[in-house]
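User: Can you help me understand a structure? I only have the sequence.
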Amino acid sequence: MPAKLIDGKAIAEQVLSKVKAVTAKLQKKPTLAVVLVGDNNASELYVRKKQEACEKVGINSKLVSSCGTVSEEDILKQIEELNNDSAVNGILVQLPLPKQVDRNKVLEAISPAKDVDGFTAENLGKLALGIEEFVSCTASGIVKLIESTGTNLEGKNVCVVNHSIVVGRPLVQLLLNRNATVSVCHKFTKNLSEFTKNADVVVTAAGVPNLIKGDMIKQGAIVIDAGIIRDDKKLVGDIDFDSVKEIASHITPVPGGVGPMTVACLIENTLKAAKLQGD
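Assistant: Let's start by predicting it. Here is the structure, written out as tokens:
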């Protein structure tokens, strides 16, 4: 029997509906500030989606944009101003940044209390200690997608094909917090299929089209595809969808799977930041 499709759009709508219900009761609406650098078309699209989601649930959005030649110092000044602006509850720096800018330095400049992407050392450190305050939106969304299938992650073997701070590292901590047994793979991993074949859940965000094929998946596994690549003017993922869907029990589509959940979890984190700040 073909795998059941995990509808990320529908699950994201459920998250947004809950946020909207809470926001409607607030006297002061939360505000999300997005720092956008350069004219990357994909980044501009992602920012528009985040702004649309904010509007949908009653959250204010503020766009701080700069040209691609902006200096690192100027970006740090922008972030400092947003940190000090009591009207701003959440700050997000849209990645990637230009080569002249130190990504880690910029992300670390964000106040941990406003770090709705969960990328500062403080928030990543809390996550490693089991404190889930501000967690990577993609990682958090992936866990929600897995749990939407009714799966209890405790004791499950999970293979994560990514080790970035955006997906893999925070996701591993979330999975460990739920007592899963986790294997972490990446571009240097030898014999990838040896890890994926033994996994009850496979999550991939490698950005390599058709990396994971049906013969690499355990019968009945849950497969989450967070790899998004533009191929021949269409979006595809890491999963060879047609072969994997015949083996897996549940699978996410690309697009329409992890992407909407990332946005929804960002909006959820912005509301959380506003509540923790007493707004």
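Now, to help you interpret it: The longest strand covers residues 31-37. The chain is about 40% helix and 15% strand. Let me know which part you'd like to focus on.
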